[in-house]
Amino acid sequence: MAARNTGGARGGKTTGGAGRSAAAIPQVAWNGIRPKPVVLVSGTEGFLADRAIRLLRDQLKAEDPSLEISDLAANDYAPGELLTLASPSLFGEPRLIRVDAVEKCTDVFLDEMLGYLASPADGAVVVLRHAGGVRGKKLLDAIRSGSGDGIEVVCAELKRDADKYEFAQAEFATAGKKISPGALRAITSAFSDDLAELAAACQQLISDIGAEVTEATVDKYYSGRVETNAFQVADAAIAGRHGEALVTLRHALASGADPVPMVAAFAVKVRTMAKLSGARGSSAQLASQFGLAPWQVDRAQRDLRGWTDEGLGRCIEVLAETDANVKGGGRDPVYALERLVRIVAARGRA
pLDDT grade, residue 73 (50/70/90)? Predict the structure, then answer.
């Protein structure tokens, strides 16, 4: 992971927000996360927070593959859960306890967590996700004052174009992939409204392109899509908005969009939906099970409303046919794409 700061805190002891006094613990950006007895992941940028927590999990698993991972919801907390999960097992495996929704925590959780700070369990890392607001302020202040020997990972929303540019730059640097400054500006502009989709677009280019990513490469994949991109077409179709998806598709194609990445966007979303169809568990549990980020789980579960397993299966078959057609196997790639949009918008029933 590149050691850049791409949004959030800029290292050591900082103020971390308006009205907040300097903390006695380190405050770092998402990619500066590291194991400590207590790790506070604060801020409104859920995508970066999810990434930070996954990075910490990977660090701990690399240190010891026997790591035990548990999830708690601070807003639905049963007395004694934290101490039970933090207590050493018979074989003394390290423990990672991920606590979500601390900004909505119950009074019982607040009291028990404050007590836990006085004597954290050996071999346990407790990650607290607080998405903002005043609830739990007493706990946050205690952690920031140094109680519990913690660290704060600040995941503030990336609002400035410069911050998003740095984020995209770090994506390519981490992968060891070269990208021209013009290409970076182009892809940042095309996906400036959604950090998750910006990351997905960067990863698609990293995966698909062998040589340096140039402006021509970005133009081929995402031409004319500052307002229109492949994911918008897929989102509209999956939601059942056939007319909107068709108009958006035609606008993208008229702007020079390549059909291949259009199909890829559908494939990413539909296959993730298929993975999660019928799955049960929290976002964090399912993300760990399927190798996804929690935000991907939440979005896929939302997209699944109104779908059946048969419809998903039908769309996966049509995706494979469309992919072959737009890569030279068919005579009319535009017709193949429009057919895909129609069948997906009908949730596989067309």
Answer: very high
Tokens of 235: 């989102």
For CA atoms 105, 108, 110, 116, give the dihedral sign. Answer: negative
How far apart (Å, rounded) are the C-alpha atoms in residues 169 and 174? 9
More confident residue, 118 or 228: 118
E-strand ranges in the chain read 27-28, 38-42, 68-73, 95-100, 124-130, 150-154
Does one domain contain both 172 and 150? Answer: no
Task: Give the domain range for residue 186.
Answer: 161-345
CATH classification of the domain holding 190: 1.20.272.10
CA separation for the pair 109, 91 (Å, rounded)? 27
Q: Using alpha carbons, select from 166, 320, 207 the residue that is nearest to residue 217.
A: 207
The answer to whether residue 278 sits within a structural domain is yes
pLDDT of residue 223: 61
Residue linked to tokens 């999956």? 238
Task: Quote the number of domains for the chain.
Answer: 2
**Reported pTM:** 0.61
Neighbouring residues of 77: CB distance < 8 A, sequence distance ≥ 6: 105, 106, 108, 109, 112
